[in-house]
């Protein structure tokens, strides 16, 4: 297993466009988390899934944001009508009940809205 | 809000031990202390965790006070590659609580 994979690593988009990011967690992990991180800040929780069920969403996740995990494996995070304030690093993490190392994070997708 | 407080920044001379403190005065009995670090433009990386006993692995040592209200991460021989932001967080391993990060400690290892 190669860990948590995120794609793309970098995305530059024009304001108003829609973007979609993908996260592939560690295969045996049933929990998947999305975080957003801006410069100089720690990661901020956005949402998480257990298998395909989305169990919690942060108030940071506005109506323009939607996340899915259709088959309980990979997940997508879509941002519609992007704004400059959406520019950030979007991090994905996964874990399982038996995992002793807390969370395993991916390398993130850096979004720049111009 | 994050349940931990850390100094915003620290410096350490290369080759010396880096001691990073963390306060978690409201920690519950079933919460573990985890440490992660984040090197620029990468995702956070697991370092070490503990409940109440001191722990050591190939990366670092974790010293937890007897009352569990604070801990110290020790990097025994800091190198330039240890320059990163270090996050101390508490997690209940019996649940799937989301992790709440604070701003962490930015460690600069100086040649």
Number of strands of chain A: 11
Radius of gyration of chain B: 13 Å
Strand content of chain B: over 45%
Oligomer category: heterodimer
| Mean pLDDT rating of chain B | 92
Helix count from the secondary structure assignment of chain B: 0
> What would you report as the Rg of chain A, rounded to the nearest angstrom?
13 Å
Overall body shape of chain A: globular
Tell me how many strands of chain B there are: 9
Average pLDDT number of chain A: 91
The H-and-E topology of chain B, N to C, reads as EEEEEEEEE
Shape of chain B: globular
The largest pleated sheet of chain B is described as:
5 strands, mixed
Low-confidence stretches of chain A: none
Molecular structure report:
Chain A has strands at residues 5-7, 10-13, 19-24, 31-37, 44-50, 53-57, 65-68, 75-79, 88-95, 104-105, 109-113. Chain A is an all-beta fold and 114 residues long. In chain A, strand 7 and strand 8 (75-79) form a beta hairpin. Chain B is mostly beta strands. Chain B has strands at 9-13, 18-23, 31-38, 45-50, 55-56, 61-64, 70-75, 84-92, 105-110. In chain B, strands 1-9-8-3-4 form a five-stranded mixed β-sheet, with no helix packed on it. Chain B has a four-stranded antiparallel β-sheet with strand order 2-7-6-5, with no helix packed on it. Chain B starts with 8 loop residues before the first strand and ends with a strand. The A-B interface holds A 4, 31, 33, 35, 40-45, 48, 50, 56, 89, 91, 93, 95, 97, 100-108, 110 and B 2, 34, 36, 41-46, 49, 85, 87, 89, 91, 93, 96, 98-104.
């Amino acid at each position: 297993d190669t860990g948590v994979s995120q794609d793309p690593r970098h995305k530059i988009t024009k304001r108003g466009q829609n973007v979609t990011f993908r996260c592939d967690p560690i295969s045996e992990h049933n929990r998947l988390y999305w975080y957003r991180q801006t410069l100089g800040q720690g990661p901020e929780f956005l949402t998480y899934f257990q298998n395909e069920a989305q169990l919690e969403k942060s108030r940071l996740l506005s109506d323009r944001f939607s996340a899915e995990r259709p088959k309980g494996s990979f997940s997508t995070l879509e941002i519609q009508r992007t704004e400059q304030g959406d520019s950030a690093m979007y991090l994905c993490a996964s874990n399982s009940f038996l995992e002793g190392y807390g969370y395993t994070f991916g390398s993130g997708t850096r979004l720049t809205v111009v | 809000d994050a349940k931990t407080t850390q100094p915003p920044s620290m410096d350490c001379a290369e080759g010396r031990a880096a001691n990073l403190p963390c306060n978690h005065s409201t920690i519950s009995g079933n919460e573990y202390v985890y440490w992660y670090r984040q090197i620029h433009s990468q995702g956070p990386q697991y370092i070490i965790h503990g409940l109440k006993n001191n722990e050591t692995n190939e990366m670092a040592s974790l010293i937890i006070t007897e009352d569990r209200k604070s801990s110290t991460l020790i990097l025994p021989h800091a190198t330039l590659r240890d320059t990163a932001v270090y996050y101390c967080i508490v997690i209940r391993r019996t649940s799937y609580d989301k992790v709440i990060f604070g701003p962490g400690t930015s460690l600069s290892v100086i040649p």
